[in-house]
Amino acid sequence: MRVSIVGGGLVGLSLSVELARRGHAVTVYEPEPLARAAATRSAGLLVTILPDHLLPLALETREFVEGLREGLVRDVKALWIARDKPCMDGVLRSHERYGLNSVWAHDPGLPLFSGEHAALIEESIIDVGGLMGTIYEWATRLGVEIVSGARVTWRRGYGPSWKGETLHGEVVVAAGAWTGLLVPDGSEYFMPYRCQAASIEGANPPLPIEDDSLGYYIVPVSPNRSNIGDGANTPLTDPDEGFIPDPEDSYNVLERYAQRNSRAWESRVLQVWSAPCNTTGDGLPIVDYHESGVLVVSGLNGAGVTLGPALARIAADVLEASREPPSIFRFSPSKRVRPGRPLEPYDVCG
Ligand SMILES: Cc1cc2nc3c(=O)[nH]c(=O)nc-3n(C[C@H](O)[C@H](O)[C@H](O)COP(=O)(O)OP(=O)(O)OC[C@H]3O[C@@H](n4cnc5c(N)ncnc54)[C@H](O)[C@@H]3O)c2cc1C
Residue 141's domain spans which residues? Predict the structure, then answer.
């Protein structure tokens, strides 16, 4: 089979490797010389605090990344502060079912954050720069053609085109936050928003923390530095605005962390960066054929590192017609963006 992939971000490149391994001829179109994709700017958390039906996808991504090269995945224990105990218990049961050794953090000696809603969760941190470089290497080694400087447009009556020529074979659109602009009526289903993180110096936590109760995460990256961010989603009219960070927001995140750890007031923000993320009306991705005939894989929200490679595998199966797109990932009325939406995408506590 011949496949053209629009977008050389984490999803597009993972899919290209998956298809090339299965013996298909693949071309990836990417407008930037080096992908400016969201993944390289992400915090790299392979999140396991997910609804039960999505957790296997995170584990599949971990397996995919580990299989590319050693050293890209670092397994960690993270401290998760849940909003309530029933929610925490549900996630712990789900972790047990899938062989993850996560436990209720009731030990009063735990620094900073013990309590009845806290758990030590098995998660992983992915070296995203290394991952993107390695996938790129694999793709070229497997004979994937990567066309850089190629901004694909939708040619009325012909579909996705570049330099006036319609793309060949099966076409997959994996253009992240730009998908809504590229696919006809795409903006009805996809909403771009800014995903942001900051590097801070001082007041490092002893381990990564995901605080759902106050709404922030913090990941220590060296003895004195951490990355900090949240899941806020302010809609953007133009995805490119997502590259313009909003420093004030990072101070808001730091303030929330300071409610747990007063030493955070001594830290300073060193750098703030951002990229556009993309979500749908119900916060879950779309992996499905658009009525125009292209396969769309997009709307991964702030969890594309966690879910991207696994969704790429699903997309490869769908292209080979060996499986139907799962119903939760299909175009449907619930995916339409509505005012006040989207919801928190992977909210386990609903
Ligand atoms: C600050 C930050 C922190 C994050 N933290 C995490 C985290 O800890 N864990 C996690 O799981 N996820 C995280 N994410 C989210 C994750 O990075 C994204 O969900 C994921 O990278 C999306 O991948 P993608 O391939 O769908 O889109 P992208 O990575 O955005 O790739 C889309 C590609 O399509 C290309 N493109 C656009 N228009 C066209 C066109 N017309 N023709 C051809 N190509 C086109 C773009 O140039 C781009 O390279 C974070 C993101 C950010 C920004």
Answer: 2-335
